[in-house]
Specification:
Helix content is 34%, strand content 30%. The chain is of the alpha+beta class. The mean pLDDT is 97.
């Protein structure tokens, strides 16, 4: 299992458009991938799950991947979160 934490710095948090971008990226991996925030954990391959977290600026999130491509998945997710200006790794 591989996991990384991020602090969301985007003023708008993770709203529909970036959530969709992230979920579409995550769908490319075979590993089981979850995202957790505010004491809730959901399947990162579910747009409704991600949106249900209500991730706003200042929220700490954790991404976990478990499977054959877990390292590549978490690395790609981290790069996407940073490149979209959503947050920074902590």
């Amino acid at each position: 299992m591989v996991k990384k934490s991020f602090k969301i710095t985007s003023e708008t948090g993770i709203h529909a458009r970036p959530a969709t971008t992230l979920v579409n990226l995550v769908m490319n991996y075979k590993s089981d991938i979850t995202i957790s925030a505010l004491k809730k954990e959901v399947d990162f391959k579910s747009i409704m799950g991600v949106m249900s977290l209500g991730i706003y600026s200042g929220t700490i999130i954790e991404v976990k991947a478990d499977g054959e491509d877990e390292k590549e998945a978490v690395k790609a997710i981290a790069e996407k979160i940073i490149s979209l200006g959503l947050g920074k790794e902590i």
